[in-house]
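Thread: sanity check for a docking pose with NAP

Original post by kr_44:
Hi all, I'm comparing my docking run against an independent structure prediction. Below are the sequence and the ligand SMILES. Could someone generate the full complex and paste the structure tokens? I mainly care about where the ligand ends up relative to the chain.
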Amino acid sequence: MTLRVAVIGSGPAGIYTAEALVKQSAGQVEVDVIERLPTPYGLVRYGVAPDHTSIKSIANYLRRVLELPEVRFLGGLTLGTEVTVGDLLTAYDAVVYATGAMVDRKLGIPGEDLPGSVAATDFVNWYCGHPDVDSSRFVLDSPEVAVIGVGNVAVDVVRILAKTADELSPTDVPHDVLERLEESQVKAIHMVGRRGPEHAKFTLKELRELGELTNADVCVRPDEAVVPGDDFPRQIRGNIDVLRSWAAREPAGRPRRLDVRFWMRPVEILGSERVEGLRLERTRLSPEGRVVGTGEFETLPVGMVLRSVGYQSVPLPGVPFSEETMTVPHEAGRVRDREYVSGWLKRGPTGVIGTNKSDAAETVRTLLSDLAGRDPARTTDIDTLLAERGVRPVTYEQWLAIEAAEGELARSLGRGERVKLAGLEAMLRAYHPGE
Ligand SMILES: Cc1cc2nc3c(=O)[nH]c(=O)nc-3n(C[C@H](O)[C@H](O)[C@H](O)COP(=O)(O)OP(=O)(O)OC[C@H]3O[C@@H](n4cnc5c(N)ncnc54)[C@H](O)[C@@H]3O)c2cc1C
Ligand SMILES: NC(=O)c1ccc[n+]([C@@H]2O[C@H](COP(=O)([O-])OP(=O)(O)OC[C@H]3O[C@@H](n4cnc5c(N)ncnc54)[C@H](OP(=O)(O)O)[C@@H]3O)[C@@H](O)[C@H]2O)c1
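Reply from moderator J.T.:
Ran it for you. Here is the predicted complex with NAP included:
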């Protein structure tokens, strides 16, 4: 029999799952990729930094999966709003949840709710033109900004803050956002790690790019670049060497300055009406390896604090969720009978795009082996169900119309290949011209 499977989420995990379903079942499957936005590709579109064009081109691979005859894209449908788990289990033989990790983690320190204290998730969504964040959301009017965390997302955020609007003009950054970046008053960016260079999560290639910025000097304090011994894996050794070389560099007088700090943890965001400073405490590791304060404090005169301390998943209505791991509990991808999980929702918010491919393959192996030889479980079909409710999903062709409008906009502005349409209304106009 031909299996009918719903995959919820059209990020890398969802699309690699659709591809694995087609390949592993030798085409004996129909897959609907259901996405809450009118646009596919998840964080490839709304996370990967706009100036990382070669990584963004993974979308060309994902596109070919959506264009397979066995696969259909249904946009503008949110699990929990337009469709429920109950609906899906009547309309499909199996469901795979791949909704990623869209919210930020908190620091849990005083002052975190002040205006100017911002989650990297919001900031990334802003410069990537995610419809959840208004393009007028940020005004970069503070000369000093702190970015908490030393992972690859922090590196992205720092790079976007450090680059000039001219450098970002050929990218797909929404035009309103580019104008805000052009007016940026930022002169100093402090990237703050609570442990040492040997513990930083950024990868060597991404770190090196910071040293190549034409608009910013990168500074590291020699005492903070010291690490015990030499016995580290190659990637970490590489990071340490780069950081040490920066510690030995003289600033070249570029317009912006990036201070990469280690062994400092944020303890309070200061200010009454908005962020006016960030209090840091020097740290060390306890004998058990925990980060502890030394009682030595320092205040940075920043007007904006961006926390980039990791993403996390949110529970889906009607789907099991562990508040401990903030993921959906599973066994090799199986959640319950006919329900599966894949990607960041399954593993937590770590790993690069490619990691989701092998992860999706595991989930699909489990699914196909569970359902082998079973009679179809579906009793209705999703098109009938949605039509009865007057819900019209965004089709793949309508998404292509959005894409075409983005190309058109770029040409009219004399900018790169595409410029993102900011906001759902602009997207709606693109696929319903005249409305
Ligand atoms: C800022 C940032 C930059 C990154 N840059 C890189 C990079 O340069 N290179 C790299 O290799 N990796 C990068 N990564 C990691 C990579 O993006 C992830 O590994 C990958 O996107 C995870 O895939 P996913 O499909 O699980 O989640 P996502 O990509 O988040 O996809 C989840 C999808 O589900 C949809 N969805 C959510 N809730 C619902 C719902 N209720 N109903 C329907 N749909 C829903 C979302 O809209 C989204 O489209 C980056 C990550 C971040 C956060
Ligand atoms: N170009 C790329 O390939 C690219 C780009 C972006 C993202 N990604 C991937 O996407 C995934 C997510 O990246 P990410 O940067 O969000 O997460 P991450 O790699 O987990 O980094 C999170 C950072 O936040 C710090 N942190 C956590 N809690 C903190 C706290 N309370 N106070 C201070 N610091 C705190 C962590 O320090 P500790 O280590 O001390 O906890 C770490 O430095 C990663 O796998 C990443 O590689 C890849």
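The chain has 16 helices and 17 strands. Hope that helps with the comparison, let us know if your pose agrees.
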